[in-house]
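Could you join me in thinking about how sequence relates to backbone shape in a protein? We need material for that, and I hope you will provide a protein of your own picking. Once you have written the record down, we can walk along the chain together:

…
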Amino acid sequence: MQEPRPGREAAMISGAMRGRGEGDALAKHLVKPENDEVAVIVPRGLGSPDLKGQIRELVAMSLGGRTAEPIYHCHCNPEDAIADNAGARRRWWELFEREFGLGQQPYCGAEHFKHDRRHEHRVYGLVRPDGRVIDLRHDFARREKISRIVEFEHGAPAVPSKHARLIEATLRREGRTDVADWLVASGTLDAERPVAALSPQERLIQERTGVRLDDLRTATLAAWRASDDGASFLAALRARGLDLREGRSGAVVVDGTGTAHLATRLVGAAARREDGTRIPAAAVKERLAGLTLQTHGDGNGRQAGPDHRGAGGAAQAPGGAHQCPGSGRDARGEVALGGAGGAHADGGRSDGSAHERALDRLAARPGAARLRARLRLMPRDRNEALADRIDAIRHRQPIAMPGGPLDIWGIPYQSNARWTA
């Protein structure tokens, strides 16, 4: 959960992240015991009795949509500057659903009581019943606009925002000149743009691992300044309980929990926050050029270079793989590639068993997922023809097809009677 930064008169804080919803980690996050109180809110459009089942329902309901990230986890947190906490949250969610067209979408969530105030998390399904996906473009700026409206309506001070001028122009275009004039009078349009200490994803990683990103940045920068080449940088990191490995997007610093953080980002951010200097990514890459590193997330003992086991303070198995939370994930929280063949390579086996297992996994996928894969593999002209048919059905236009009508997936109905609008 985002906490207000010192000196910032935060009034209405929000955060959001889009994801796949695979596994039950999100449900566990929403009911974690570190809050003083946790209350599961009444869901909409879902029948499961608990959060885990409700999120699984949201994912299952999204199988007809063309998206790999079908759920949207969002939270709103009224600060002490707003006296009516419940009223502010209620108004924020009302504007939020109107802004993104989520008024008819299923959701679930939880209400937390922490640090003497309440905040609320919701998880929305993004796929509409007709298969279309909710448009979340520029969601950060759009949520900031909603927060400014709620702050204005509840008598809270305006908060400087990176998108202040865009928000003011949008408010005028939408007829909320009262809020736009309030923003201009507050002086926030000319204030220095604030820079968040952590991104929402970095904040979630920090909460999950318990490792403060500021401490990690400081240690990485100290190792950088105590070294003059890749080998000495690696040694300096190890002396501080860290490790350096090859990740999906370049070299990553691995903390004591096995979680990877992009090295260029850590060094650059640490220098900028310490004394305002800028260490470009190119400088970090140049120093590490020629350094052979083990691939992060390698669970089969395969290596991209010399064995670097035993560094970083993380528990390791005999094969050198980290056996701890966050292992095998890069700075964005995604699974890193393992070796030349990737995390799912067959480890050099040539007996065909890996291919057979891959086919078994494909055959075990839900029917809708298999059909989507077939559509992607079809010739372009046939795929476009199917898309035209699907669009026609979605808009309820009568069409004639050989052999009878098709549903939105291109599958014939049981009845051969002609379908009409």
User: Anything to note?
Assistant: The beta strands are 12-19, 37-40, 71-78, 107-114, 117-125, 243-247, 250-254, 260-262. The mean pLDDT is 76.
